[in-house]
Structures are given as C-alpha cells and as structure tokens.
Design goal:
Elements lengths: L1 E5 L7 H14 L5 E5 L20 H12 L2 E7 L7 H7 L12 E7 L6 H13 L3 E2 L4 E3 L2 H4 E2 L2 E2 L2 H23 L8
Parallel strand pairs: 1-2, 1-3, 3-4, 4-5, 4-6
Antiparallel strand pairs: 7-8
Bound molecules: flavin mononucleotide.
Flavin mononucleotide (FMN) binds next to helix 1.
C-alpha cells in the first residue's frame, strides 16, 4: 500500500483536496493507494506522555502502523508560517526510528501562496534525509493555491502535468528500489 499523507488537521483544508488529486494520479500507476488524513486523528488525546508510543490513542497507533507498513509515502504539506504545520511535525514525532523512516520511499507536494510550499517541503526533506529515508527528487510546488484549486480540482495544467509525472516516477522509483531489495530492507 502506498499512502498519501494529508499534512494538516485543519478541517476543510485545501491540503486534503490536493491529497485526493494526488491519490487519483497515483491510482493510474498503482492500484492500492489510500489517504492518511490528519484531520481525522484525535489530537486532543495527545498529552506529551506518548512519545514512546505507550498509551497512544488507537487512531494514532493505526495511522503510524500504516506508515510503518507502507511501500511509500507522498506527503502533501501546506505552508504554515514558513514551515510545515505543527500537527504534521507532531504526528511525525510519534513515529519510531528506524522502523518508520529508514529507507522508506517518500515524495513531497507543497502548497501555499507565493512560494508553493517550498519551505515546508525543504524542512521535511531535512527531517527525512536525517532519518535515512529514500526521498524522490522531483517535488511539486503548487503556488497561488487559491487560484490553482477550484472545487477540488487543479485548474492549472502545468501543475496537473507535474503531479502526474511525479506519480508515475515515484511508483517506478519504488519498483526500482524493491527490485534490488533496497526497500523493504531484509535484516
Ligand atoms: C496557520 C496558517 C499559517 C499560514 N502561513 C502561510 C505562510 O507562511 N505562507 C503561505 O504561503 N501561506 C500560508 N498560509 C496559507 C496556506 O498555505 C493556505 O491557507 C493553503 O490553503 C493551505 O492550507 P490549508 O491546507 O489549511 O487550506 C497559512 C495558513 C494558515 C492556516
């Protein structure tokens, strides 16, 4: 299973709509695609006591198990104050190392206004490079998101083409890694 991680818990977010578009592109190249939606997770249950995973709410445990079992992740992140949403980093900070991260194929889509989520994507790349993931090099940045997304559809053909190219390339990237047993790693 390949997961698209919708990187904010803001209800009605544009990020969630973009995650749906990304999933549709991926489904052209791979059948088993699902979305992990941070807006569905019970953040009010996180108390700061759960970084070890002990006592974590089952909805978080299930979402982290999806990450751990995934063949790859496409993380869709909006830009909040020049970085990724706190909710996304907070979710990631409950993952386990190395299991959740190491050698996991990961791709990034950013959205925002002027810079199209360049900063949160680069911050995420730092996190995932540090944690030894396999980052797919072609990122997609959706600028002027208020104009680029209408009624849940991307209306900018250039962005649509970039999302499709990334989806195709990322699925082939995963296939290539698997063919050489680079992921999942046999211990
Ligand atoms: C708390 C917050 C901070 C934001 N900061 C930025 C920012 O620094 N740069 C930017 O381009 N857009 C910023 N935005 C706008 C979002 O990128 C924009 O609302 C976009 O729709 C994606 O967010 P959404 O998925 O919550 O809808 C911010 C939005 C919120 C809610």
């Amino acid at each position: 299973m390949l997961y698209v991680l919708s990187g904010t818990n803001r209800p009605g977010s544009r990020t969630r709509q973009v995650a749906e578009v990304v999933a549709e592109h991926l489904k052209k190249y791979k059948s088993d695609i699902e979305i992990i939606d941070l807006a569905k997770l019970p953040y009010s249950e996180l108390t700061g006591q759960h970084y070890s995973g002990q006592g974590l709410h089952t909805e978080f445990t299930k979402a982290i198990e999806k990450v751990n079992d995934s063949e790859g992740l496409v993380i869709v992140t909006p830009e909040y104050n020049g970085s990724m949403p706190g909710a996304l980093k907070y979710f990631i900070d409950h993952w386990s190392y190395p299991r959740s991260f190491e050698f996991r194929p990961v791709a990034f889509v950013g959205l925002g206004f002027r810079w199209g989520g360049l900063r949160p994507v680069e911050h995420l790349q730092q996190v995932f490079n540090y944690r030894n993931a396999f980052a797919y090099p072609e990122r997609v940045f959706i600028t002027n998101i208020g104009d680029a997304l209408k009624d849940g559809k991307i209306v900018d053909k250039n962005v649509t083409d970039l999302l499709d190219k990334q989806a195709n390339g990322f699925v082939r990237f995963i296939t290539a890694l698997k063919s050489q047993n680079l992921f999942p790693v046999s211990k």
